[in-house]
Every structure is written in structure tokens, then in C-alpha cells.
Amino acid sequence: MIGVWSPSTLLHDPSAEIWIGLRTPGTEVAERVRRIRAAVPATWAEAAEAPWDVLTSVHSEGLLRHLRDVYAEWVAAGYPQDRVVPYVFPTAAMLGGLPGRSPAAVHGRAGLYAYDTMTLVGPGTWEAALTAAGAAWTAARLVSRDLTYALCRPPGHHATRDGYGGSCYLNNAAVAATTLRAEGYAKVAVVDVDAHHGNGTQAIFWDRDDVFYGSVHVDPGAGWFPHYVGFADETGGGTTLNVPIAPESGDGVWLSAVARLCEAVAAFGAEALVVSLGVDAAADDPESPLRVTRDGYLSTGRLLGGLGLPTVAVQEGGYHLETLGPLVAATLRGIQPPS
Fold it and tell me: Considering only Cβ atoms within 10 Å of each terminal Cβ, which end of the chain, N or C, has fewer?
């Protein structure tokens, strides 16, 4: 198996999250990459930088330029916080139908593309996010008959065309799927097995008939991020399938949902597959209430591998450092068992 990564993904240091008004330690830390690399047997290739036109096929230029420039502008303005922390957001409720403007002050502009207070921007955030997108782009160009793995950090599936949040800045899975389409695969499926719904990926491909998006995740109706979307009745143009499951669900419920997603991928007629590979549905993970075991992740991989499609696995969540690497390795082993 070819794995794609870059040491630049280690540069992002969120330092903290601002959650319900509290400054709490960040869980999306650089050590995640080290743990995964140590556990995953792969021939590692260096990520190339994704071309700007690839990035703009997924994200708006405004978002890209904001992420590139906002930290330097924040530092130049001399704010006491060591990370970019938004405090006001140009929501529909705020604007009330009025035409919004780009704020003159960077502390106002900080929330222009952000949609939560958890996802802070620091000195290495843009470089790491750009490299993560490049890893997904590189892996998609390298895939042939079997599997490539993009060790992306920060993760991406919560990033929309015009926004970032949920510890995600650029949507790596969407970059991979768009690249596979450009490589000649007429229909591409994205299957998201992160514990949380990939609202960004769903939104980016919502009206597309050439990209299927399917997700199994903890039910947002039970109080879990992203709260506002990720429900079963969201079908887009008929190429979206969400399978929310209840908190405390374990392997049986989880694997039934994955099997349902695989059936939908086959019915869609996908020619290639992107797996948004989060392992934060594991019992020990601090970020979700699901109870998927290591055997459950191995079986998840086998179900996905059973589709027999060229597959790009893109790293998303997974935050329990002691078990993170083995869980990722088990899933990848299931997708592509030893020959």
C-alpha cells in the first residue's frame, strides 16, 4: 500500500479549543500523525502541493485567501490571543437579508469564513491544511487498482466550500473525489466512517449526480456535532445517504449501517471510492459516544474493500492516541488484505 504524507502536516498547532466559552486543550494534535505513521505499514510518498485550480474546484477563493493570510494579519494587529479566535459571525440572523461587507478590522474579519469557536488558526495552520489537501490530491493521482492512503492532518470533512469548522480547514476528501473525477472516473463515491457527519463533504456534492456521499455517524439529533445537519431525510439530488445511529451503538449497528452504505455505492455504479477514514467511533475515543471495536474497524474495512473499487482512504478524526494507529491500520488492512 502506498501512503502519502508530509512533515508539514505537523506544523498546525491549535493550542486549544474554545468550547461553550471555555478554553480547553486541543485534541487534534500533531502526535496523531506520528502514531498513525508508526502503526501503518506502507510505502510512504511525499505529498505534492495541490494546484490552486484544484483547490478552487472545492473551495472559494475567499476562503483560501483568508486561511492563507489571516494569522499574519492577526499578529500584525497585536491582539493578545496567540491564535485567531473569532467572536462575531456574519450569519443570516445577523445580516437579516442586508448585504454584508468584509470588515475592516481583522478581529471582525476573523469570523468571516469560520462557523465555530473551536477551530483556531495559528502560525502553521495554512501550511498544514494546504499539505493535507495535497496529500489527498497526490493519493488520488496515484491510485490504480487497489488502495492508497492519504495521512491528512488537519482533517477536512467539516469544511464547506465557503467555511471552516469542526477542526477542519480544507476538505481533503472532496479534493480526492474531485481529482478522481478529473482522472477519468465517471462516478465517484465518498463513504464517511468518521463518528461525526461530514457536513462539508455533503454540502460540496449536494447537487452533483456524479459524486455519491454516504455517512454513518452518531445521531446529531441526540445532541452531537454538527447538530444542524446529518439527518436521514437529507438526500440532495438523490446521491446522499445519511445513516445516523444512536449513542452507545457498537459493532452490530455500526456494521449494518456500513453495509447499507456499500449497497448504495454499488447501486450508484461508482467506479472509484474515497473513504473518509475517521476512527473516533471507537470506545476509548474522547470525541464521540459510540462503541466500535478494533474488530469492528477491521470488518468496516472488509465491507468497503468488498466493493472492489480503486480506493483512496483519507484520514479524518480519531483522537485517542494509544489506540489511534492500530485502529487506522486495522481498517486499511480490511480494505486491502495481504495478497
Answer: C
